[in-house]
TrEMBL record:
GO MF annotations in UniProt: transmembrane transporter activity
Protein name, entry field: Major facilitator superfamily (MFS) profile domain-containing protein
Source organism per UniProt: Schleiferilactobacillus perolens DSM 12744
Membrane topology: Multi-pass membrane protein
Top-rank lineage group of the source organism: Bacteria
Transmembrane feature ranges: 28-45, 57-76, 82-99, 124-144, 164-189
A cellular component annotation (GO) from this entry: plasma membrane
Compartments it resides in: Cell membrane
Principal place of residence: membrane
Keywords tagged on the record: Membrane, Transmembrane, Transmembrane helix
Annotated signal sequence range: none
């Protein structure tokens, strides 16, 4: 589910930064690079914290952070400072970094030693499916919302009408927020359920 929500952002962000805000492709790229840079730093730290905290707790914290960043994106306008948008991108990378390592541990710990290869393959398949679903669902929601705001069908960014795009962007990222929130609730239930079983 998180890969679905992440790819909502991956689809929307270039339109917002380049078309709506007028940034050059390289400038938008530098800003969006904050996500993987922060994630690369945080992921190993999150992995090491599994020795002190339950993986389910760490994944829940990561999902809460990701949900909060979606709220930030939902409120973005043409006057939002780029440093603030960049901060959200970095925080999103932080949340994703906190989430991924312990989540992989949880997945791999549910199978026997001989099935680790199969579990790894299924985990990769789930990620790729999330990417595909995220791209297709986000573009569907985006252009359906833009068409409704524009009053007629559209399947592209409308030059000179950033307000139409922002309407579609806010709707699309609201959907992404609810996906993150649902994933957070499911993960929190999983964490509490395991704590009850451990007693």
């Amino acid at each position: 589910m998180i890969f679905v929500a992440n790819f909502f952002f991956n689809v929307i962000a270039p339109f917002y930064l380049q078309n709506a805000r007028g940034l050059m492709p390289n400038e938008a790229g530098y800003l969006l690079m904050l996500f993987p840079i922060v994630q690369v730093v945080v992921s190993p730290i999150s992995g090491s914290l599994q020795n002190r905290f339950a993986p389910e707790l760490l994944t829940t914290v990561g999902l809460v952070i990701l949900s909060i960043t979606q709220i930030g994106y939902m409120t973005a306008t043409l006057s939002t400072p780029l440093w603030l948008f960049g901060t959200w991108v970095g925080v999103m990378g932080f949340g994703n970094g906190v989430f991924q390592s312990p989540n992989n541990t949880i997945v791999m710990s549910t199978v026997s030693q001989r099935d680790l290869g199969v579990a790894g393959g299924m985990n990769a398949l789930a990620r790729n499916l999330g990417m595909v679903v995220g791209i297709s669902a986000s573009t569907t929601v985006l252009f359906a919302s833009m068409s409704q705001a524009y009053g007629k069908p559209t399947t592209t960014y409308i030059a000179g009408r950033p307000d139409i795009f922002l309407a579609g962007m806010h709707t699309t990222l609201t959907v992404a927020f609810f996906i993150c929130a649902l994933a957070t609730l499911i993960n929190l239930w999983r964490y509490l359920h395991r704590r009850v079983q451990a007693k």
